[in-house]
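[step 3/7] fold_predict: job queued, chain A
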Amino acid sequence: MGTITKSFGSCGGYIAGSKELIKYLKYTCPAHLYATSISPPAAQQIISSIKVILGEDGSSRGAQKLAHIRENSNFFRSELQKIGFEVLGDNDSPVMPIMLYNPAKMPAFSWECLKRNVAVVTVAFPATPLLLARARICIYVAHSRDDLIKALKVISESQAGMSKVERKETTR
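[step 4/7] structure written:
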C-alpha cells in the first residue's frame, strides 16, 4: 500500500498484491464501492515521474533530485533534533513528524508558524492517540538551504512563542 499524493505529487494511492489479495479486497472492503480509478492525466504524471527517477528520460535529473532531497531532509531532521524536537520517521525521508504531544499546543504552534509564512500540517486524535499529537513537516526538492534555515528559525521561534503563551496561561 502506498500513497501517490506524497510520493509523486499526484493524487490517490494504491495497493499492490497477489491476484487473490486484490480480489479479496474488492469483494470485502466497503470503501472500494466509493473509490474511483485514477484519472489518465494523474496516471501519466506518475509514469513520467518514475521515468525521470529511473533516468529513462535520458538525463541524471532524477538521481540529482533524489540526492538533493535526501541531503536536505537529513539536514533538516538533524537541525530539528538540535532544537530539541523529537522527530519520528526514517532518515532520508522528506516527511518528518515532530512530536507536540499535547493536542492543545497544535493550533498555537500551527498559527505561529503560519503567521511567519511556514505551513505545517498538524495531526491529532483520532488520527493519533490522544496524547501523541504531532506536526508533519514535508521537505520538497525545490526547497533551498536558505528556505530550510528560515523554516527552522520559524519553527524554533514558534515553539518558543508557544511556551511563553503556555507560561502566561499557567500564571493567571
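[step 5/7] annotate
The mean pLDDT is 87.
The radius of gyration is 20 Å.
exit 0
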